[in-house]
Each structure stands twice: as C-alpha cells, then as structure tokens.
Design brief:
Elements (H helix, E strand, L loop, with lengths): L1 H60 L5 H51 L8 H16 L4 H22 L1 H9 L1 H38 L1 H6 L1 H56 L5 H10 L1 H31 L16 E11 L2 E12 L3 E5 L6 H8 L7 E6 L2 E2 L5 H7 E4 L10 H6 L6 H10 L19 H14 L4 E5 L7 H16 L5 E5 L11 E6 L2 E6 L1 H7 L8
Parallel strand pairs: 3-8, 3-9, 6-7, 7-8
Antiparallel strand pairs: 1-2, 1-4, 4-5, 9-10
Helix pairs in contact: 1-2, 1-4, 1-6, 1-9, 1-10, 2-3, 3-6, 3-10, 4-5, 4-9, 4-10, 6-8, 6-10, 8-9, 8-10, 14-15
Bound molecules: adenosine-5'-triphosphate (ATP) and magnesium ion (MG).
The site of adenosine-5'-triphosphate has 11 residues, from strand 2 and helix 11.
Length: 571
C-alpha cells in the first residue's frame, strides 16, 4: 500500500514537472526570485526586531540617554522593512497563483485539442469527459505551481533555519527533534488520503454520467412518471454514495491538517519553556526568544506545507489520470494526399471489429459518381457502421476500401471528411446565427449560403443573421439546417444516415429531387441514403440491403423489390 502511494506521488510529480516546463516555467522562476528576496528581508527584519526588544529591555534596567531617538530609529527601520515585506508578499503570492492559471489555460487548450483530434473510436464516455473538464482539470492545474511552491518552501526552510541558528543554536537543536515526527505523520496520512480520494473520483464519475443521462432525457423524465421516479432514485443513490466517499476524504484531510497545526503549537510551547530557562540562566536574551518563537513558524509551516502537498500529490493521482487519459488520446494522423474529386468509392469484403465484436462481416459496396444510392436493412444490420467506416471512424480489420482506385488511407483524413460528408440522424445545430451555423466561420458568399439553404429545403429562415436557438427548432428543421451546412462546403459525396427521417415525405421528396439534380449536373458526385422508408427508393438509382454486417441483396430498386422478398421494401 505504501509503495503504491509512493509510486503515485512520483507519477504526479512527473506530471507536475512536464506541466511546469511547458506552461508555467517563466512565472515560476520569477515567483521564486521574489520569494527569496522576501525571505532575506524577513531575515533582516527579525534580527532588527530582536535588537529592538533587547534595547527596550535594557531601557528598564538603566535610564539611557536619548531613548526617544533610539526607539524612533528602530521604529522607522522596522516600518520600512514591513512595507517592503508587504509589497513583496503581495507580488510573490500573486505570481504563485499565476503559475496555476498558466497551467490551467495551457491544459484546457490541450484538452480540447486532444479531443478534437482524437481517433473517433478511442473517445472515452462522453458524459464523463465533461466532468473531467469541469472538475478534474482545475484541480490538476494546481500542479503548474507545485514546483515553484516547493522551491519557495525549501528556501523558507533553509533561510529560516539559518535565522534560527543565528538567534539561538540551542533552541534550534530543540526544534530539529520534532522533524522526524512530522515525517511519520506524513507517511501515514498521505497513502490513506490518496486511496479514499480515488474512490471519491470514481463515485463522482458515475454520478456525472447518471446526471448527464438525466439532463439529456429530461423530456422523457417529464413525460413518463415512472422514468422520473426511476432516474431520480438512481441519481439520489449516486449522490449519497459520492457524499459518503467525500466524507472520508474530508476526514483524512482534516486529520492531516490538524495534526500539523497541533505539532506546530507544541513546538512553540517547548521553545518558550526551554527559552525561559536559558533567559533565567542568562544564556540568551528575551529578544532572541521572542524573535525565535516568531521565526520558528517560517521553518515549521513550510515543513508542514511540503508534507501536506506531497500527500496532496497522492490525492491528485486519480485527477491527473483522468485528465491525462484525454491528453494522451491517440491523434489521427492527418497526412497524405488531399482528396479532390471523387469518381468512385469501392468497399470490398470489409470486416470491422470493435472490442472483439464483429460489426461488419465482409460488406461490399460501390459508389460511382453520378448516382444516388440507398442502403437499407433492419435495425442493427450495420448501416451506420458501414458509412462511418467510409470516413475512417472505424478501420477495417479485413478487406479494403478504395477511392478513385487508390487505397483510401492514402488520402488525408481531413480532406476525406471534407469531401465525403456524413450526416447523422441527430443533427448538431449551434447556438449561433444561421450564417455561422452554415458557414462555420468560413467567408462564404451570401448567395451560396442561400443556395444551400434552399437545396436543403430550409423554408423557415428570413435572414442569415437570425439567431438560432436549437431548443426552439423541430427535429425536421434541425435536420435540414445540418444538410444545408453540409451542402454549403462543396462536398463530393453525401452520406445521409437517416438524416431526413424527421422531415415529412413530401418535403423529403423535394429535397431528394434537388439533390438528384445536383448529381445529374455534376455539382455533386454521389449521394448515399440510409433509410427505412421505401418511398425513398423512387429517388435512387441503386439499392444495397444489409443484414448482419454484410450486403445480402443489391440492384436497381425494382430489381431489389422483386428478388429480395423483403416486407419492408413493399411500397
Ligand atoms: N461502438 C460500438 N461498439 C460495439 N458495438 C457496436 C458499436 N456501434 C455499433 N455496434 C453494434 O453494431 C451493430 C451495427 O450497428 P449499426 O449502428 O451500424 O446498425 P444500423 O444498421 O445503423 O442500425 P439502425 O438502423 O438501428 O441505425 C449493432 O448490433 C450495434 O449494437
Ligand atoms: Mg444506424
């Protein structure tokens, strides 16, 4: 258990080092320099303070001449040093905070980039990713300031120890005895804290997934009382299990903190008692003892801080893991030729396996320029998987896919997905203007945007600057906006995966007629439509029927109707 704790601490330390080097190195170094200057000022301040107290004590014994000037001189020096300390303290603390912020900005950007470029098949569960971004990332970014803080604490211990030694070598030796006790408390608590904290993270992760389901299904939650009581009960169970995990984290956290506070108190007490003896025997001055009890804080607090922050390192381990899993997601390599015009796509005996499950089992399909295709088949047959494989969301483990008679992996992924555009059943409509929804930041001429909107059958928009509120659009309206977006960026092939199933049949017929027209005039290469509607077949040239991950029947619509004896194809 203990060795495991050490391994975690080392791991997090390595992460802190990488984050610091990448994002917060400069600000860390500046903060460290400011702190060292501050500590030297404090060193001098304490010595002056000691001199001042001893001077005041000497006034009690014999009336010194010019006492007013003596006190005034000390007062001015001490006030000047105090002001300097005050300024440096603000600056030093502020810079230390900035180290964490620099890391947060850097990590958050990296996090989003990593998600944006990750292989689609490798993405972690979606609801959980949001939790990682919202909660784990800010904890982890504290590590950007860890090395700077550690440096500051070490400097405090070193400079503070020299100061204590200068004030009183005997009292300094006494304070040293307490150090091993600190170490033992640290060892015991840190491992425990790391373990309870990991359990807490797991519970939090479950809760955030459950909560996401709750929010996404809020319509069902409202519409179905049974669903409401079921999901509420599940949420409540998860809240209370997270709460109980968090209680253990709090307990060990508090225990750890209070142990250090109490140890520090007892150190001061011991110093005062032994200092009292020394003063009585004339071996040290009152000024030294008072200055010592003040300054001992500067050695013990950093020891506590270091111990505590090493324990916190173990505690951060699960957070770092969860963030790092996203940061190290394998990116897609976007190398290769740019795909331009698409004349043909040929999939041959494609097998796709995910986690040992066969999703496509030797599927073959050909898409030629100038044609409109339908892909049909019962639910779970593999239609979506087949289309996603064409845009490399999945990689075939057997078989091949060729575009224009080249292995399709020869083309860069981004150009592949720009030219072969996949539209899912669930459209993504952004909270932005119509123009931004369609052009996505590209400077498309207005008439092109309008043309795409018309082609996609969008008849509910008056101005391109209209703000879109996705929650106020019908599913069919959203599907048409998504289609318009796809059309506006000059695609070569459209893969419509039930992407118009929320649109009524007449409107769909008009849209498909428009798309056919585009294909006929060679403005668009080809269209592949996954559909369960047999009426759609009157708009297509060729049909593939998929079953259990392979094509079981294909041909022209009439031919397929005749030879495939499938009830869902009867018009
Ligand atoms: N990421 C995945 N991991 C494991 N199995 C998957 C995954 N995605 C899909 N499947 C499974 O693969 C099979 C094919 O799924 P696919 O989504 O391609 O079917 P479909 O033909 O599009 O069905 P529908 O008409 O319902 O949309 C299904 O049995 C499904 O459960
Ligand atoms: Mg599907």
């Amino acid at each position: 258990m203990e060795a495991d704790g050490e391994r975690r601490v080392r791991y997090v330390l390595g992460f802190a080092y990488r984050v610091t080097r990448r994002y917060s190195l400069l600000v860390s170094l500046v903060a460290l320099v400011i702190w060292i200057v501050l500590l030297l000022v404090f060193f001098y301040y304490t010595l002056v303070m000691k001199g001042f107290i001893d001077y005041l004590v000497s006034l009690l014994q014999a009336t010194k001449a010019a006492w007013f000037h003596g006190i005034l001189r000390y007062a001015l020096i001490l006030l000047g040093l105090w002001a300097l300390k005050y300024g440096l303290n603000i600056l030093g603390e502020y810079l230390l905070r900035l180290t964490g912020l620099a890391a947060l900005e850097g990590l958050a950007t990296e996090f989003i980039r990593s998600l944006a470029w990750a292989r689609p098949s490798k993405l972690p569960e979606r609801g959980d990713i949001v939790g990682r971004f919202m909660s784990d990332l800010s904890r982890v970014s504290e590590l950007g300031g860890f090395l700077a803080s550690l440096g500051v604490q070490v400097a405090r211990i070193v400079i503070g120890s020299v100061l204590l030694y200068v004030l009183s070598p005997v009292l300094f030796a006494v304070t040293l005895i307490i150090v091993p006790i600190y170490y033992v408390v640290f060892r015991v608590s840190s491992g425990k804290l790391a373990i309870v904290s990991e359990r807490e993270r797991q519970a939090f992760s479950r809760l955030s997934m459950v909560f996401r389901e709750f929010v996404e299904g809020i319509l069902h939650v409202k519409a179905l009382p049974r669903m409401r009581s079921y999901l509420s009960a599940v949420s409540e169970r998860n809240i209370s299990s997270w709460g109980s995990r968090l209680r253990s984290v709090f307990f060990y956290d508090v225990f750890f903190n209070q142990s250090f506070n109490s140890l520090y108190d007892v150190v001061r007490l011991i110093v005062l008692i032994i200092g009292g003896f020394l003063v009585a025997r004339g071996e040290t001055t009152i000024g030294s003892v008072i200055a010592f009890t003040n300054a001992v804080y500067n050695v013990f607090e950093p020891i506590a801080n270091i111990s505590y922050s090493f324990a916190a390192l173990g505690e951060l381990y699960p957070y770092v893991k969860r963030v790092e899993e996203v940061l190290v997601l394998e990116p897609e390599h976007d190398t290769g030729e740019r795909l331009g015009r698409v004349n043909s796509i040929k999939a041959r005996d494609v097998v796709v396996e995910v986690d040992g499950r066969v999703l496509l089992n030797g599927a073959s399909l050909t898409v030629r320029r100038g044609n409109v295709y339908a892909v049909m088949g019962s639910t779970g047959a593999g239609k979506t998987t087949l289309l996603l494989t064409l845009i490399r969301f999945y990689e075939p483990s057997k078989g091949e896919i060729r575009i224009n008679d080249h292995d399709y992996r020869a083309y860069s992924v981004s150009s592949l997905r720009e030219k072969i555009v996949y539209l899912p059943q669930q459209p993504l409509v952004l909270r932005a203007s119509i123009r931004d929804n369609i052009a996505l930041g590209e400077s498309l001429p207005d008439d092109e945007v309008w043309r795409a909107l018309r082609l996609a059958g969008v008849d509910f928009v008056a101005s391109l600057d209209e703000a879109v509120d996705p929650s106020k659009l019908s599913d069919g309206q959203k599907q048409r906006l998504a289609l318009a977006r796809a059309l506006a960026h000059s695609p070569e092939v459209l893969l419509l995966d039930e992407a118009l199933n929320a649109v009524d049949e007449q409107t769909e017929a008009r849209i498909l007629a428009g798309l056919r027209n585009e294909v006929a005039s060679d403005r668009l290469g080809a269209v592949v439509i996954v559909t369960h509607r047999s009426a759609t077949l009157s708009h297509v040239d060729y049909v593939y029927v998929l079953e259990n991950g392979r094509v079981v029947c294909d041909g022209e619509p009439r031919e397929v109707l005749r030879k495939c004896n499938r009830t869902e194809l009867q018009v």
